[in-house]
Write a structure and sequence with these properties.
Length: about 140
């Protein structure tokens, strides 16, 4: 049975959404993929759509969510406190364990890179997806 985790990743203060996306896609993912080798999972990233707005406070940090508001169809943009929803899927729990072993071998380098562009985050184990298709 596949083993899946999800992560909500928030960009580091002082980082624009584009800088965050660029480093995640072109720096962090290739680094971790190279260091973990054949244990690398299916890795999907969905970035929150953020639009540059004119903040009420003219002194607002130009990289803040006050300036870069999330596009929300229901609810408040201020409630969206992450920038990317990441899903990682391994063939099974044993494959996850092999990945973790490789990850821990290189954890200092990986975690240093994470903290260069993102805030610390939780890793959440989830069940298999339940899908309802169109008729």
């Amino acid at each position: 049975m596949p083993f899946t985790i999800i992560v909500t990743v928030k960009r580091k203060a002082g980082t624009t959404p584009q800088q965050f996306r660029d480093h995640y896609n072109n720096g962090h993912v290739p680094l971790v993929k190279r260091l973990t080798g054949s244990t690398w999972p299916k890795h999907t990233r969905q970035f929150v759509i953020r639009n540059e707005t004119k903040p009420a406070n003219p002194d607002a940090d130009k990289t803040s969510n006050e300036v870069w508001q999330s596009e929300v169809l229901r609810g408040s943009p201020s409630n969206v406190d992450f920038d990317c929803l990441t899903t990682m899927v391994w063939e099974d729990r044993a494959a996850w364990d092999r990945f973790l072993q490789k990850f821990y071998e290189h954890s200092e380098e990986i975690l240093a890179d994470e903290l260069s562009f993102a805030e610390p985050f939780e890793i959440i184990c989830v069940e298999e997806p339940v899908t309802t298709d169109r008729d």
